[in-house]
Every structure is written in C-alpha cells, then in structure tokens.
Write a structure and sequence with these properties.
Largest sheet: 5 strands, mixed, barrel
Order of helices and strands: HEEEEHHE
Radius of gyration: 21 Å
Structural class: alpha+beta
Helix content: 40-55%
Length: 150
C-alpha cells in the first residue's frame, strides 16, 4: 500500500543525459501533456523537455536514466504559477478602483483599475521568477536520477 501511495506522489520519466554541471545532470526526454509549458521545473523545445537532476549515481553523458520528481512539489508549483498571477490581477483591479475613488476620479475608474491590474500582474511575474530561482536551489523541487538504464 505504501509503495502505491509513493508512486502516486511522484512523476517518473526516462531520458538521456545531454550535459553535466557539477553534481547535476541535464536530462532530455519527450514532452508529455503533463509537462505543460509553465517552465518552472522544466525547460526545452516544443517536443523535448530538459530538466536538471541530482546525479548521485554518477551517470555519464549519453546514458539513459530514470528520473523522478515529487508531484506534490510539482502541483504546488503549478498552482502558484497559474493562480498567483490571477489573484494579484484581481487584487490590482480592486486596488485601482479604490485608488480612483480615493483620488475622486470616477470618470477614469476603469483606466486606473486596468493600469493598476497590469502593474500587479507584472509584480506577480517578478515574484514568480524569484520563486523559481529559490525553488531550483531547494532539494524538494529538484529532479533526481534513481536508475541508470544504459
């Protein structure tokens, strides 16, 4: 039972090591629909995904490996990337409406609200970028090589 639960809480992919950077291996594998295009944990082309994975097994460039990523961290990251900008956009709209009322500019309420929402949205993307850099350094969000296949 525990093994079944553990397998539900992680994504597992097979790929090929294309480069090494210190203790991290860059692993490429075909993009699946679950990868999406958020770019938080994965980078690559339209049909291939490249991820950095901990290489504790000492795999070399060109070897095929099995990589895991905890889906709990993946789900949290995806929720943050998609829901946080929406939340700040709505907050920006309300702030803009409040600001227009405060400045007694009823004729420009929609314009002020739209501009405010865009500033809040830009702030959300900046914060996501900061979060991405921090998440890459954390062990919980990083992929890990668990098996060398070839």
């Amino acid at each position: 039972m525990r093994n079944e639960v553990t397998s539900l809480l992680r994504m597992e992919e097979e790929g090929k090591i294309i480069a090494m950077e210190g203790g991290l291996a860059k692993v490429a594998f075909p993009r699946k629909t679950a990868c999406g295009k958020c770019g938080l944990c994965f980078r690559g082309s339209a049909d291939m995904v490249v991820t950095e994975a901990e290489n504790e097994l000492g795999a070399q460039i060109g070897q095929r490996v099995r990589v895991i990523l905890s889906t709990t961290s993946f789900i949290k990251s995806a929720a943050f990337v998609y829901l946080f900008p929406l939340f700040l956009l709505i907050c920006g709209l309300f702030f803009g409406r409040w600001l227009a009322d405060y400045l007694r500019r009823e004729e420009a309420t929609e314009v002020i609200a739209a501009i405010s929402a865009l500033f809040f949205l830009a702030g959300a993307f900046f914060l996501i970028r900061c979060y991405e850099r921090r998440a890459r350094r954390r062990k919980g969000c990083q992929s890990k090589i668990v098996e060398i296949l070839k």
